[in-house]
Amino acid sequence: xxxxxxxxxxxxxxxxxxxxxxxxxxxxxxxxxxxxxxxxxxxxxxxxxxxxxxxxxxxxxxxxxxxxxxxxxxxxxxxxxxxxxxxxxxxxxxxxxxxxxxxxxxxxxxxxxxxxxxxxxxxxxxxxxxxx
Length: 132
Description:
This protein has helices spanning 24-34, 60-63; strands at 2-7, 12-15, 18-19, 38-40, 54-56, 69-71, 86-91, 98-101, 110-117, 125-131. The protein is mainly beta and 132 residues long. It has a single domain, classed as Dihydrofolate Reductase, subunit A (3-Layer(aba) Sandwich).
């Protein structure tokens, strides 16, 4: 499965109970990465246009098929690590006071691709593609 996440520079996923993923340009990139149906939790639905092909489920990591793509806003991801064959990170290039952090050690993954683009809320967003 492919997992999409948004992180700060210290791998924070949330700060002050707020999501790190609210940027309409990033949302468009997430949809490009999925290439079809995107599995999301109910709280993530509002990030995407109403016509988006979303599969809404409380158990995103468990319900996403092996060849599927999911977007995850909160940890833990480590229980699903054996099923993750690609992790795509959207990084804000900032540090926030994170109260939820990615629980995968990225230094155990191989960075296969990296690119930058301007976002709506941040002048530079970095997209990183990792494989185990």
